Amino acid sequence: MLWLIEELESIRRFLGMGGDVLMMLFVLTLLLWVLVIERYLYFFTEYPKLIKKTMADWDARADKLSWNAKKIRLAMISEVSLSVNRGMPMIKTLIALCPLLGLLGTVVGMVSVFDVLAVTGTGSPRAMASGISKATIPTMAGMVAALSGLYFSALLEKRANRATHQVSDSLQH
């Protein structure tokens, strides 16, 4: 239990060094990972049920060759595609926002550095250190969050495309 308290304290210190922008980035990254985990849970729990239902609905049809049947097949494939891609635009948007928020942290930190310079009138490194940390830490955190999210987003997108093609191939004409 003591190690958990120590870890939470180190996270709190890290967030404090980066300023308010790092806290916003933390919330954004948390939301990103909630959405990514939700998509993975979907593929392990709901997706197999959807495939079984779609295949059963298609197999229950007597007519599979008419123009209407082909359009119904396309509609079924589209429903599966929409279902497996749900949430992906939001994930991609959050990934794009992470580095931008990190750059905002850079700007806020540099403004803090210039405030210190304006007040003290000297280039004291000790006085500028907190502003420099507020400038660099959010940038690093934004890039790390975006890169890790980008990797898992690409895996999810590949999985969604594979699922759509699998359904398309499985529904016989």
UniProtKB/TrEMBL annotation:
It comes from Endozoicomonas numazuensis. It holds the Pfam family MotA_ExbB. GO terms for biological process: protein import. Its main location: membrane. Signal peptide: none annotated. This is Biopolymer transporter ExbB. It is found in: Cell membrane; Membrane. It comes from the Bacteria. The chain crosses the membrane at residues 22-43, 94-117, 137-156. The lineage of its organism: Bacteria, Pseudomonadati, Pseudomonadota, Gammaproteobacteria, Oceanospirillales. InterPro entries: ExbB/TolQ_transport, MotA_ExbB_proton_chnl. Keywords: Cell membrane, Membrane, Protein transport, Transmembrane, Transmembrane helix, Transport. It is a multi-pass membrane protein. Residues 68-167 form the MotA/TolQ/ExbB proton channel domain. GO terms for cellular component: plasma membrane. Belongs to the exbB/tolQ family.
